[in-house]
Amino acid sequence: MKTNNSANTYSNDGLFYEILVRIFTTLSVVDLAVASMVCKSWNLASRAPQLWSKLDISTLNSRGLNVPLRPYAWRDDHSSQKMTQFLKYASSLSGGNISCIIFNCYVYLRDVHLISIAERTPNLKRLVFPVSGDISKNGIETAMRSWRGLESITITSVVHHINFFDAVRKYCMDIISLKITCRFEQYEARALVNYTPNLKVLSIRNMTVNMGGLCHVLNNLEHLEVVNLSHSLIVDKLDDELQQYSVDDVQSRVNNSCKLITCQIRTCLWCKTPFARNPRRMPHGTLEDIWRDDEIRSLSH
């Protein structure tokens, strides 16, 4: 009888664990962290590997982590410490299983945040930076040193491009997917060719794109399969004046057969989303849309 009771208890515990894990899949990462503090059985279930392939903190609206919907949120020291503690605790629950990190669009990212999470996520494959912060050369290099297996990045102005590409050159030469949200000039083009030779997917949508730089990338990255140019303004300086170019102009100057994504009669996400240009959402809502959306599905989140 004791043996049967033990077997039944073990079976019931296993079923309870599976039910909890299934429920926890519906929770945000913040709510999951809160649930882990309820009791031992909830804490155990909250550590299930399938719950932690992605650390998505793009939405922080719980009572404990309520981030204002504007850039430079949580810039004060108290909020920064709270974010550091949260990142450390969430990564401890993950057991090293996190392969994707999506930072909150508006949280002000500091070196301490980036380094603390990098040290605890050695298997990271995809990284999405926020739109505001201040990451030093040492901060980005320390993080990239831990993330040698990185394959996909969304880069914003939070990291100086010179520091970013220098770190990529040293530690992350296997990047195959990249989204740039701030600018694309000659320097970015040369850096892509020199430091991301295996690049297959590039998104430079909704920005000003240097014509010479774009052609340099298309002519020299032999593995490039698709470039998203939706709503981008392609320009170059000619006789001290800016000259605008079309996609046809680009294609006439390159010998690469990769696909160029452009907006064709309201076919892109920007045109399909009328509320994107709602004055009530300006300017921060639009900024977040550009950061979050992409016609290349693997780069949207």
UniProtKB/TrEMBL annotation:
SMART domains: FBOX. It comes from the Eukaryota. GO terms for molecular function: SCF ubiquitin ligase complex binding. InterPro entries: F-box-like_dom_sf (IPR036047), F-box_dom (IPR001810), LRR_dom_sf (IPR032675). Residues 9-55 form the F-box domain. PANTHER family: F-BOX DOMAIN CONTAINING PROTEIN, EXPRESSED (PTHR38926), F-BOX DOMAIN-CONTAINING PROTEIN (PTHR38926:SF10). This is F-box/LRR plant protein. It comes from Medicago truncatula.
